[in-house]
Amino acid sequence: MTILEMLTIFFATVGVAFILLASFGVLRLPDIYTRVHAVGKAGTLGVIGVLFGVGFYFGSLLVLAKMLALIGFFLLTSPVAAHMVGRAAYLTKVKAMPSNAPDELAGRYDEQRRLL
């Protein structure tokens, strides 16, 4: 087994494990805010691991460069998407679990101008 094959197996396995962890988070966590957090963190790490595995599998510098570009794109867009989903949930008044942190934005949202 070559070093590239070992790296492929390692990164793909770690990536799939993080994606599985994110899916458990979606199924088991109590509200939208904690679910978005689980998917935003574990899902991002999972996709990065799988993309590294794909890059090492093909062993080409060009493919690895494309995978790095995809990883960069994903690192830029995934947190923004998670933030926007959480913000949309908050602005539509989706309630959080009482055991979560207190609502620090209470009373700060101007509904007429739609500004926080």
UniProtKB/TrEMBL annotation:
Q: Identify the keywords attached in UniProt to this record, alphabetized.
A: Membrane, Transmembrane, Transmembrane helix
Q: What's the short name of a Pfam family annotated to this entry? A: PhaG_MnhG_YufB
Q: Tell me yes or no: is Transmembrane among this UniProt entry's keywords.
A: yes
Membrane-spanning intervals of the chain: 6-27, 39-58, 64-85
Q: Which family does it belong to?
A: Belongs to the CPA3 antiporters (TC 2.A.63) subunit G family.
Q: Which PANTHER family match?
A: ANTIPORTER SUBUNIT MNHG2-RELATED
- According to UniProt, the name of this protein is Na+/H+ antiporter subunit G
**Origin species:** Candidatus Chloroploca asiatica
